[in-house]
Write a structure and sequence with these properties.
Layout: E1 17-20, H1 27-35, H2 49-59, E2 64-68, E3 74-83, H3 95-105, E4 111-118, H4 128-142, E5 147-152, H5 165-168, H6 181-188, E6 192-205, H7 207-214, E7 222-224, E8 233-236, E9 241-254
Parallel strand pairs: 4-5
Antiparallel strand pairs: 1-2, 2-3, 3-4, 5-9, 6-9, 7-8, 8-9
């Protein structure tokens, strides 16, 4: 689940409205166009997400929405998926990959799982992300779900790619709040950390594909840091493959 860093600017979201894809199906394409610059390119090529992601809008339109201001501009793209979860740590999905598979294979859902909250890069610096997160919690409540479960993509983890996510997720500031801005935004809205997920989003590609996505050269096999990566990519030149696991942190909002 991705987002810009914690936002504290003066963008007015008080009059913004929530519009679902069920109400306006054309928002799917419009929102993607508006927000596609908020993600690093490599993030758009998940082995599992690539197969399932288009189905969110077509098969679960009531759970995909945009936050729209009075002028009609899209402030945020927000996507989620009902899943079944017993409430135990042992039953947490295997990252965002596992969550999206579970959501489409098991229809007996009791929990809303956040897939993404994405704000256009030009609008970073306002209060949009917390407003979108509150709207997603409200959506969970409106559909009778007791929990909003989120595989959160820590916004500052790219600064510390060699630090294990299990360690990073425990970092706190001197005021006691979580160190990472996006984790901290969730925490301020009442969420708690359940556990770190080191293997949440799997991305595999040929070496040339990874070079194009990262704008780096990988002349020999090994593990490499790359810009905006939350961990390293493992390159095997002989097999012509690069493999990457993106970590997340499971957080729970009890609605």
């Amino acid at each position: 689940m991705d987002s810009p860093e914690e936002t504290t600017g003066d963008i007015d979201v008080d009059t913004a409205t929530v519009v679902t894809y069920a109400e306006r199906p054309e928002l799917d394409a419009l929102a993607w166009e508006v927000t596609n610059d908020a993600f690093p390119e490599y993030n758009n090529h998940g082995d599992t997400l690539t197969d399932y992601w288009p189905r969110l809008a077509s098969e679960r339109p009531d759970f995909q929405f945009c936050l729209i201001d009075r002028s009609g501009s899209i402030l945020a793209r927000c996507e989620s998926l009902p899943i079944q979860w017993t409430g135990s740590l042992d039953d947490l999905p295997a990252g965002i990959d596992g969550a999206i598979v579970r959501g489409f294979k098991n229809q007996d859902a009791n929990t809303l799982c956040a897939m993404v909250i994405c704000v256009p890069r030009s609008l970073h610096g306002g209060s949009i992300s917390p407003a979108a997160l509150r709207a997603m919690r409200d959506l969970a409540t409106a559909h009778g779900f007791d929990n909003l479960l989120a595989p959160v993509r820590p916004s500052w983890k790219e600064r510390y790619p060699l630090v294990p996510i299990e360690q990073y997720a425990t970092w706190r500031r001197s005021d006691g709040l979580l160190f990472d801005p996006w984790l901290r935004t969730h925490e301020r809205l009442g969420a708690r950390v359940l556990r770190a997920e080191p293997k949440s989003l799997r991305i595999t590609g040929a070496v040339a594909e990874w070079e194009e996505r990262t704008r780096l050269a990988f002349p020999e096999s090994g593990s490499y840091w790359f810009p905006q990566g939350l961990s390293t990519v493992s390159i095997d030149v002989a097999a012509d493959v690069g493999q990457y696991w993106e970590p997340n942190v499971w957080m729970l909002h009890e609605t």
